[in-house]
Structure formats: structure tokens, C-alpha cells
């Protein structure tokens, strides 16, 4: 499976943000013949009084011709991953990682905002140039 254009940048940004990458990719079997591959899995390095947080991150670059087509794909993957993890790793939270520029323009469209709310999509907004996480949206 091909890695996303900004895979390494997001991985670096998560590490900078205090996460330990535990899987690259995280593979989940949903049947004998079918498996899903989520780009990254990580655990928080800082776990003071609570259990360590576990996340799965689907990375999207939105560098193709059609943002809406990329969004359809990302949404479908996100929902499938949420369902698969609910069954096999219920303590792991799924995030969709998107570039800051895409978030500032395309993701502000009312249709996209309604979709994010309806499906309770959790986002990581990243800056691929600086390899930094700009915002977590839960």
C-alpha cells in the first residue's frame, strides 16, 4: 500500500508532539481475506495519572485534482477504521490528519463542516513544511 505524500512529515510532527509511534502502519484483520491498514498508530509518551492515550491516524494530503473526491475517500476510510477498531481495539481513537491549508479553505465549507459534525470526525491539523501539529479537533 502506498504511503501518503505527507506520511513522514505527520509522523515527525506526532513524535515532536510527544507521541510514540507504535505501528507504521496499523493492520486490522476484519476477516480471513480482508485487512485494513491505517497509516499510523501512536501512544502518548506522557501518561502521568491516567492510562496512556492510544490513537490511530489516517493521513491525507489533499494534493490531487479533486478535494471532494479525496474527502469522500477519507470519510469512508475513517468510518471503516472507527468501526473496525471499535470491535478490536475500543480504547484507540481514530483521527484524520489533514494539511493546515486544506483545513483553512476546503474544510470550512458549510457542507464539509456539517459532515464533520454529523459523523463526529476527529481531526489533526498539520503543517507539512514545519512538520508540526497545529490543532487537535476532538
Structural class: alpha/beta
- As laid out across the biggest beta sheet, the strand order is 1-4-5-6-7-8
Order of helices and strands: HEEEEEHEHHEE
The count of helical stretches stands at 4
Number of strands: 8
Classify the helix fraction into a percent range.
25-40%
- The low-confidence parts are none
The overall pLDDT average reads 92
Characterize the main sheet: 6 strands, mixed
End-to-end Cα distance: 28 Å
Rg (C-alpha, Å):
15 Å
Please indicate the percent range of residues in DSSP E strands (runs of 2 or more): 25-35%
Shape: globular
Task: Note down, in words, how this protein is organized.
With 138 residues, the chain is an alpha/beta fold. It is 33% helix and 31% strand. The chain has helices at 7-16, 67-88, 100-104, 110-118, and strands at residues 19-23, 26-29, 35-38, 40-44, 54-59, 92-99, 123-127, 132-137. Helix 2 links the parallel strand 5 and strand 6. The longest helix has 22 residues, at 67-88. It is globular. It starts with 6 loop residues before the first helix and ends with a strand. The relative contact order is 0.17.
Describe the secondary-structure layout.
Blueprint: H1 7-16, E1 19-23, E2 26-29, E3 35-38, E4 40-44, E5 54-59, H2 67-88, E6 92-99, H3 100-104, H4 110-118, E7 123-127, E8 132-137
Parallel strand pairs: 5-6, 6-7
Antiparallel strand pairs: 1-4, 2-3, 4-5, 7-8
Describe this protein with a few key phrases.
8 strands; 138 residues; six-stranded mixed β-sheet
Short structural description:
By secondary structure, the chain is an alpha/beta fold.
